[in-house]
Design brief:
The complex is a heterodimer. By secondary structure, chain A is mostly beta strands. Chain A has no helices and 11 strands. Chain A is about 0% helix and about 55% strand. By secondary structure, chain B is mostly beta strands. Chain B contains no helices and 11 strands. In chain B, the strands form 2 sheets. In chain B, strands 2, 4, 5, 9, 10 and 11 form a 6-stranded mixed β-sheet that branches. In chain B, strands 1-3-8-7-6 form a 5-stranded antiparallel β-sheet, with no helix packed on it. In chain B, a hairpin with a 5-residue loop joins strand 9 and strand 10. The N and C termini of chain B lie far apart (about 40 Å). The chains are: A mainly beta, B mainly beta. Chains A and B meet through strand 5, strand 9 and strand 10 of A and strand 4, strand 5 and strand 10 of B.
């Protein structure tokens, strides 16, 4: 089945530094990728929708200058958390939209997530 | 405004019995529904989906039922196994006013299957 990878799986950084998280679709082309954030004991919160070759669409309340998203190719999207602070510590998950070989319909495939801890 | 609701935050079921997870939605424009399973510190895993033209979809031990008039869907797991213990998210998708499809997730139900 379709696979989405994320790198790194875990990162610890100092306050004020920037962190880049990569999301790759490994065996399908994803024109659309999504970035989510999960707070403890809460649902996934959609941060932004990333379309290849165009600017990302951010959800209300998400700072686009804080969370930079680049979708340079059909298999790679990156999320950069700039000037990270402890409140940015969270579990970040990307997903890519692809076609299910079984259903023949578009389905989201999720990456394994990245645990960010800002000290 | 929570468009997709999972009103039971947790559920405990004995091994071998049926697990029923429920999900309600408010937007009648949603036309595709999905269930995801999530273990701690991992990304959600796609489980099963159903389009609005169907009322049932079955895949092994997992069956999803859709009641469009009630705007309700449920996931049945039978027989339940200890490895099914996880958080289950339902999600709905539909066309937004900007012309893109958007996925809305419920808050999740933590299933615990007791051995």
């Amino acid at each position: 089945g379709a696979v989405v990878s994320q790198h790194p799986s875990r990162v610890i950084c100092k306050s004020g530094t920037s962190v880049k998280i990569e999301c790759r679709s490994l065996d399908f082309q994803a024109t659309t990728m999504f970035w989510y954030r999960q707070f403890p004991k809460q649902s996934l919160m959609l941060m932004a929708t990333s379309n290849e070759g165009s600017k990302a669409t951010y959800e209300q309340g998400v700072e686009k200058d804080k969370f930079l998203i680049n979708h340079a190719s059909l298999t790679l999207s990156t999320l950069t958390v700039t000037s990270a602070h402890p409140e940015d510590s969270s579990f970040y998950i990307c997903s890519a939209e692809g076609t299910s070989l079984v259903e023949g319909t578009d389905t989201q495939y999720f990456g394994p997530g990245t645990r960010l801890t800002v000290l | 405004d929570q468009q997709v609701k999972q009103n039971s935050p947790s559920l405990s079921v004995q091994e071998g019995r049926i697990s029923i997870l429920n999900c309600d939605y408010t937007n009648s424009m949603f036309d595709y529904f999905l269930w995801y399973k999530k273990y701690p510190a991992e990304g959600p895993t796609f489980l099963i989906s159903i389009s609005s033209i169907k009322d049932k979809n079955e895949d092994g031990r997992f069956t999803v039922f859709l009641n469009k008039s009630a705007k309700h869907l449920s996931l049945h797991i039978v027989p339940s196994q200890p490895g099914d213990s996880a958080v289950y998210f339902c999600a709905a998708s539909g066309l937004t006013t900007s012309g893109t499809y958007k996925y809305i997730f419920g808050t999740g139900t933590r299933l615990k299957v007791l051995a």
